[in-house]
Write a structure and sequence with these properties.
By secondary structure, the chain is of the alpha/beta class. Among the domains are: 133 residues, no CATH class; 34 residues. Helices cover 55% and strands 16% of the residues. Strands 5-6-2-3-4-1-7 form a 7-stranded mixed beta sheet. The longest helix has 35 residues. The chain is elongated, with a radius of gyration of 54 Å. The N and C termini lie far apart (207 Å).
Length: 282
């Protein structure tokens, strides 16, 4: 076999192998390449650490798409050089997602902002970050029933279908703790100051209390003396009181006898003796 023939076979083998590889890639990836998608976007006012390009977007655990772009709002929308607006809104994080049409019945080619707004207002439709255990990674969840979360304030017109987001719950928890800690410091500080001031006057207060207890003790002694004197007086006059009560008893008995006599012989009480009996002439 000549050297030219050998080179020809090697080249033909490489060409056929490359063709098979390209054909396989096309066959296997054709579904992805020609897959119909609809693009949506959302915004977060806090960090989106944990999600990246390629992060899944799910609805009740069913994969419906993936994140395909992450940037800040200030790079996607123009604020006309207004730094106040840029500082307030421009640093929001913009997340764009590619949703597979037909993945769920909600996602259709005709999905528009009007339909989304209706679901947002009436069904509480939101996009939220959900952590994947303790890995530090997250995915985006399209979910309903989150109407208690207020809509984010935006001053620009979204270029794509806009689905409001739910704040990052972990960061909201941390912020809540920090706010609570700050509030506790502000509330406790005056209390500590009042306790400090009260502790300064504590010795004087104790002195006043002791003085008051001394007055109470003196008052108790005076009351005891008064009771003893009263008992003494009652003892000294007890005999006189007993004689007086006996006299009253005698007088009462005499009055009762007189009353009975007056009832039985009133003439005797008036004239002293009963009048003589006189005979009746026949």
């Amino acid at each position: 076999m000549s050297q030219k023939t050998q080179y020809f076979k090697i080249g033909l083998f490489i060409l056929i192998g490359s063709s098979i590889l390209v054909a396989g890639i096309i066959v296997l990836g054709a579904g992805k390449i020609f897959e119909k998608k609809i693009y949506v976007e959302t915004y977060f006012s806090t960090s989106v650490q944990g999600i990246d390009i390629g992060t899944p977007i799910k609805c009740r655990g069913v994969k419906i798409g993936k994140v395909d772009q992450i940037n800040i709002v200030g790079d996607a929308y123009d604020f006309g050089g207004d730094m106040d607006k840029f500082r307030k809104y421009g640093l929001y994080v913009r997340v764009r997602g590619a949703l597979k049409i037909g993945a769920i019945s909600l996602i259709t080619q005709k999905l528009n902002q009007k339909e989304i707004d209706h679901l947002v207002q009436n069904e509480g439709l939101r996009l939220k970050m959900v952590p994947l255990g303790i890995t530090g990674l997250s995915y985006l969840e399209l979910d309903f029933g989150n109407g208690e979360y207020p809509l984010m304030d935006i001053i620009w017109k979204p270029k794509l279908v806009y689905i409001p987001s739910v704040p990052n719950e972990f960061e909201m928890f941390i912020r809540g703790l920090m706010t609570f800690s700050k509030s506790m410091n502000e509330d406790i500080k005056p209390i500590l100051e009042n306790l400090r001031e009260a502790s300064k006057s504590f010795p004087e207060t104790t002195k006043n209390i002791n003085k008051g207890l001394g007055s109470v003790s003196e008052l108790s002694t005076n009351l005891n003396s008064a009771v003893i004197n009263a008992n003494k007086i009652m003892g000294e006059n007890q005999q006189n009181l007993k004689e007086t009560m006996n006299n009253i008893k005698f007088i009462t008995n005499d009055l009762r006898d007189v009353s009975q006599e007056l009832k039985n012989n009133p003439s005797r009480v008036i004239f002293g003796e009963a009048p003589p009996k006189q005979g009746v002439e026949r």
